[in-house]
Structure formats: C-alpha cells, structure tokens
Design a protein that fits this description.
Helix content is 46%, strand content 16%. By secondary structure, it is of the alpha/beta class. It has one domain: P-loop containing nucleotide triphosphate hydrolases (Rossmann fold, 3-Layer(aba) Sandwich). Helix 1 crosses helix 12.
Length: 275
C-alpha cells in the first residue's frame, strides 16, 4: 500500500508547506539513489492559499478544470479520471507530480458542508491512483476544516510540524485527539501519527532548547519526535526563489536535516511494504 503523509497542524506559520514540498522532493531523490523501481511522488496541495503549488509549479492560476477543486466537485464515477487529468509535473523534477490547489477551494468547502460522505471526496479517487506512486505527501491548511479532514481521511501517516515557541503539550495533545477522532469516526484504521517535526529550531535560544527538552521528555509526545529542522536562511531564500532547499544549498543545515527526516520516513515506508 502506498503511504500517504499528511502534514497537519491547526496553527499557521509552522512550516507545513515548506516541509511538505521539501519532503516530497527529498523522497524522489532518495528513491532514485537507491535504485527503486518507482521514483514517482505525488504532492497534493489542499490549502486554498496554494503556497506548495506555487513553489513547485511556478503557477497559482489553477481553476475549475485543472485542480483539486475539480476533483472534489466531480461525481464518484468520474473523480479518478478528473484527478489523473489535474495532476501536473513539478518544475523541480519530472518524477515529482503535483495535484494543485486553487483559490476556489474555499468555496468548495462551503459547498460540501453537510454533504454525505464529503470527507471521502479525496480518499476515494486517490485510492484508484495511489499505486502509480511510491509515496504521496499532502499539504493542509492551518485549521481543522473539512479540507483538512479530507486530507487526513486520505492519509496513512499524519506528520505534525511545530515551532519551538509553539511546543505546548496541551495543543499537541489536542491535535493527536483530532487525528484519533478521524481514525475512529471515519473508520480509517490505517491512519496513524507518523511523527512530530520540530521546525525553525534555533539552539542559540534558551527557550527553544528548553521546550525541545520538554518535548523529548514527555511520556507520550517524546516517542513521536521524528525530526528537528534548524532555523536556516537557506529555507527562506529557497522558498522565495521557488526552489527546494536541497537544490538551493545542499550543504545547508536544513538540507541535511530534511535529508535525515526523509531517510527516516522512507525506512518506515520500506518496512511497511515488507510486512
């Protein structure tokens, strides 16, 4: 089964889009280096702001017929083909494909509120195409909206990016509770918490070090820590130039940290295939 990684947190500015795009690109590179038979990775942008779409495709003008919006508005029979037609190639790498977001997603969410089976509108058609990809990465909006719920229903692994200044355990536990509610409420037993990812970590800041130690020592959250991405100007500059951090500066601390994270996630992927 293709693993689907959804990056989610109801707080904004914690590095969801940056992490989603760099993880997806990093997976393509690692798959290629190890000689995997399938190097293709799909990045799905469910945020109407479309940051992940813009940096990976150079476009933010996707609309009614060529974006995630068109998939969600399609009927059940045609949705898989609509999804396949909407996928575009990233300008980062020919094996990184993108299902782009659209500003119309805001309206789509309102249209689907109260519609029976709405949370499955992404999962159902995606399940028909998932086998074409080695892995799928989903970027979500900074809220627990219907769109985020759809992303989690489609996912196998929820990754939670957090900034050190936001590392308060009550907030993280509420995110875990929401993921558990979706797993049980929508009967998605394969959905699990894939890990907590600390972003924008500055070891020079005492508060950052204190909060990271607090997370590591927490009896529940400490076991879920899967990576720490340092605060690094290369990330901001790469994002500004619509690049991934690996290509912008392969020696940057953030590049090395994302590479380590991707290695961790891919080992889990290989282990899940083996079992």
């Amino acid at each position: 089964m293709t693993r689907v990684f959804a990056l989610t947190n109801h707080k904004g500015g914690v590095g969801k889009s940056t992490s989603a795009t760099n993880i997806a690109f990093g997976m393509v590179g690692l798959l290629r280096r190890v000689g995997a038979p399938n190097n293709r990775v799909l990045l799905i942008d469910t945020d109407s702001q479309g940051h992940a779409t813009l940096v990976t495709t150079g476009r933010n003008d996707f609309g009614t017929d060529d974006s995630l919006y068109s998939v969600l508005m399609a009927d059940r029979q045609t949705a898989p083909q609509v999804l396949a037609n909407a996928i575009v190639q990233s300008h980062w790498d020919f094996d990184l494909h993108v299902l782009p977001a659209s500003a119309l997603l805001e309206g789509a969410e309102r249209e689907m509120m109260g519609v029976a089976g709405a949370p499955y509108r992404l999962a159902d058609p995606l399940s028909k195409l998932a086998g074409h990809y080695a892995a799928i990465v989903i970027d979500t909006r900074p809220s627990f909206s219907l769109m985020t719920e759809m992303a989690l229903v489609a996912a196998t692994d929820a990754l939670i990016p957090v900034e050190p200044r936001y590392l308060e355990t009550v907030g993280l536990l509420s995110v875990l509770s929401k993921i558990n509610d979706i797993r049980e409420g929508w009967r998605r037993p394969e959905l699990r918490v894939g890990g907590i990812l600390v972003t924008k970590m500055d070891t020079r800041v005492r508060g950052h070090r204190h909060l990271l130690d607090e997370l590591k020592n927490h009896n529940i959250l400490g076991k879920m820590l899967c990576g720490v991405i340092p605060a690094n100007e290369a990330v901001s500059y790469a994002h500004r130039d619509h690049q991934n951090v690996f290509s912008y500066d392969p020696k940057a601390p953030a590049s090395k940290a994302y590479a380590q994270l991707v290695g961790t996630l891919m080992r889990r992927l290989v282990a899940s295939v083996a079992t």
